[in-house]
Amino acid sequence: MTDFTVLKLQINTGSGAAGEGSGSATWSDMLFGTASYEMRLCGASAGGGSIASASWPTYLRPGSTGVIPEMWGYFGSDASGGLKSTTYDGTSAHYLQKRISWDNTGTFASAPIYSAWKDNTLPAAVPGTQPGSGDGTAFINGQSSDTSSTSYIKANFYGQGVTSGGTQQTPSSNAGGTLTATSGTNGAVSPGSGAWLATWQSLQALTQYIQNGGTPAATTAGFWYCAMAYYSGPNMTAGTLLPVEGVQYTWV
């Protein structure tokens, strides 16, 4: 029995045609659980590739709930080598934004899930409850009037990645679907084979999350594509907010 040698998140930092279309996607590795690999959110045109995390531009809490419009990736260095996620803008108008990548050494024992948590201890969410001082809980729990107690983090996944028969499913059209600050439903939602979710899901620990619609083929490398939207609102507790995202899976 063996686990995967490589299972990682990748974000599209390509240029040309907003990083989509033939040959324009550039996939940069965002390693799970590894120091100084971070996705950083900011206001439009506020980010940069050589800004230390302690000096990262503050995002002002908005007067009404809305999407945080820009995201950058840092890949193992705190203050250098940062790249803009060219297809992230918090809308449903892109299809090559993020993906989960795995190699051909492991075998999923069940359908993997994707969600977000307060921090790397992966605690349960308390929907609608904001912390006394700002941390990742502010994103995950959401707030009653801002998000109807769903998470401020929304996601849409495409298909099954690699089907049980070994077919890679790769999107060629935009994520589309219903996306609002209140999008989300309790429990797991699963995209259909070769399709995006019709309604984006809130990522709220194991209260609201996305589960693959099948178990990917054994010992077969693959990609599971997704798009994200990160919201903020007037009732979100301010502070240094550091939620984590991750894949949970079993293997044989």
Fold and architecture overview:
- This protein has 252 residues and is mainly β.
- It has one domain (1-252).
- It has two helices and 14 strands; from the N terminus they run ββββββββααββββββ.
- A hairpin with a 7-residue loop joins strand 5 and strand 6.
- It starts with 6 loop residues before the first strand and ends with a strand.
- 41% of the residues are buried.
- The mean pLDDT is 96.
Rounded to the nearest angstrom, the distance between the terminal CA atoms is: 6 Å
Multimeric organization: single chain
Largest sheet: 7 strands, antiparallel
Share of β-strand residues: 25-35%
Q: Which of globular, elongated, flat, extended, rod-shaped describes the shape? A: globular
Integer count of domains: 1
Q: Structural class given helices, strands, pairing?
A: mainly beta
Question: Helix proportion of residues, in percent?
Answer: under 10%
> Uncertain runs with pLDDT below 50, 5 residues or more?
none
